[in-house]
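Supplementary Text 2. Reproducibility record for the structural model of the 256-residue chain.

All settings were left at their defaults, and a single model was retained for analysis rather than an ensemble. We include the record here because the model underlies the residue-level annotations in Supplementary Table 4.
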Amino acid sequence: MRLRFRFRGIPFLATVVLVALGIALGNWQVRRAAEKAAIAQQLAQRGAQPPVVMGDGGGVQEHDRVGTGAHPTKSQDLEYRRVRLTGEFVAGWPIFLDNRPHEGRAGFYLAMPFKIAGADRHVMVLRGWLPRDPREYTRLPRFATPQGRVTIEGVAVASAGHVMQLGTPGALQPGAIVQNLEVEEAARATGLRLEPFFVQQTGPQVAGETLVRDWPVPSTGIDKHRGYAVQWYALAAMAALFFVITGFRSGRKQVE
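Retained model, structure tokens:
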């Protein structure tokens, strides 16, 4: 039996639109995956660099020393860099970030300002995770704070992470339980000159500490973008294949 293809204008235009859309969106996802791969490479490179010193801790070359002047450090210059802070915690300003589970347990991230030695500036340090009391929702967990001058290490991050905001947040005050925290908000409430980033504290616990410092690894989502690209390309291929198959079927019916 002779095959005959029936060309129809409207289905053809619809197919062209779907194929063009699928290819365009697939290409966009491929570009996004490439951008995320470049970011992941940059993060790996930054993590391998020597820690940046903030304060007069010494022992690091001068070009790696920041935060000792009157001007704040740009967050993008330090994001995901290891940092070493010398100074002391502002123990009177603990802030608890709610809805931060760890290994299936409810809990908080403890945030606290840290005064940089030799500078009139502070850094908001995420000291670690603390469990919530399952029997009393509003009861704050106990924790210990090192007294006096200390040197700590951590990783600079632009954000403390965001969760769904439940209700309207109240005024920020010492010991507050909040869903989310921004550096600008903390600076207004505390009256302190804060650097425009957070530091996730790492390293071993000191005597009396019960904080868990198992920070989540940032996800770039490269595989997700690649998967979406495959789906969009598949849509374009299926649209073209459907047009061809239905065209031959319509042509066969005309012959019959």
